[in-house]
Structure formats: structure tokens, C-alpha cells
Amino acid sequence: MTSIADFLMPAAAFPLGRVFEERPEVRLELDRVVPNTDTVMPFFWVHDPEGEMEEILEVFDSLGELRSVVLMEDLGDRGLFRAEWDPDYMGIMGAIAATDVTVVSASGSESGWTFELRARSSESFSEFQRHCDDHGIPVSLTRLSRLTETTTGSGYDLTEEQYEALVLAFERGYYDEPRRTNLEELAAELGISRPSLSARLKRGYRNLLAATIVDDGTT
């Protein structure tokens, strides 16, 4: 049964958190993270009410854990950065890559980091915690729930299977242009047939649209 967990980490325990020492008002959001062999967190957003993205870039440039960092978009009070991490530093990224967990969202502020993770079973979170403990990564579990508990009653009217299929397709790049995966690969990962996945996605689309942007006249 798919589960969701929140783990907290002190601000200084993740290298990017060093920016909070000089700019405590800043907030960071790690953008759409998909594990690969090099790094699982290449993109991140910085929210700064002062809009001083170039000064923040200088802070990141000084981090020894980063090979390079580029300010890709400067939108005033928001900036999109791309980082290339030194392979000798993995930290929590190594724990994510080494265990069967996926990052749903991750954000940081002066008060600390919150990582929302998803896994096929709660045992994967136990493996993640053990990996962190063995490598001196100070994380603490603050929430654990089944996926049905987080989606039921959310107003989207999705079954757990539909939710899982839609999110997996999104994370693997099925909706990207060009596509980075196909239905055969996604179906194999879920352990179902291609027609079953196609039908599951179509039912999920219908339920999601009916619950969000389409008025079907039933309310």
C-alpha cells in the first residue's frame, strides 16, 4: 500500500540552507525532483521578498558541495536555480537515491527543511531512516499515512490506483514535450498491462476534470 511521509531536517543540515544564515527571510522550494545517477535535486526556487537573486547566487557559488550553480530565471521576488552537485557530496540525496522513495515536495526556511516522500510501503521509509542514521543525516519522521488517507476527501474523487498512475506518469515525463517515457514503460513499472494503464489514466482524467474545472451539472 502506497504511503506518504514527512521528514524534517535542521536548516544547516542541507548545504543550500547556508543561505538562511545571511538571508533568514528567504524560502526555498526544490523543484520536481526525479532521482538519477548524478543528483536528485538539480532545480530549486528561491523566494526572496527583497528580490536580491544575484546576491543569493553569490552565496550558493561559495558552497563547496556544488560544482556549479546557475540563475536560470529571475522573476523579481522569485528565482529558478540549477545546481550541479559535487558527486562526493550526496547527503540526503544519497538516502533518497539508495532507497525506494520518491520526493513529492521539499521546502526549506530558517526553521528547517520539510521533505514529503512517497513509497510503495512504509518499510521503505524505515530503510530511508536507517540509511540517514548510518550516514549521520539528522532527519526525523513527523507524519506517516497511507496514500488513501491523503487523497480520500480531497475533492478530486480519485482512487488510489488512479492517483498513483497519474502522479507516476507526471514524474516520469509522460506529459513532457517531448515525452520521456511511454505507456509500456509506465505499465511495466506499475505491474499492469498497457490497456489497463490507459484505462486507469482516462478514468483518472475524467474524475480529476469533473472535480476541478468542469461543472457536470450534478451540484
From TrEMBL:
Residues 21-149 form the Bacterioopsin transcriptional activator GAF and HTH associated domain. Residues 158-209 form the HTH bat-type domain. InterPro entries: BAT_GAF/HTH-assoc, HTH_bacterioopsin. Signal peptide: none annotated. Keywords: Transcription, Transcription regulation. This is Helix-turn-helix domain-containing protein. It comes from Halopelagius fulvigenes. The lineage of its organism: Archaea, Methanobacteriati, Methanobacteriota, Stenosarchaea group, Halobacteria.
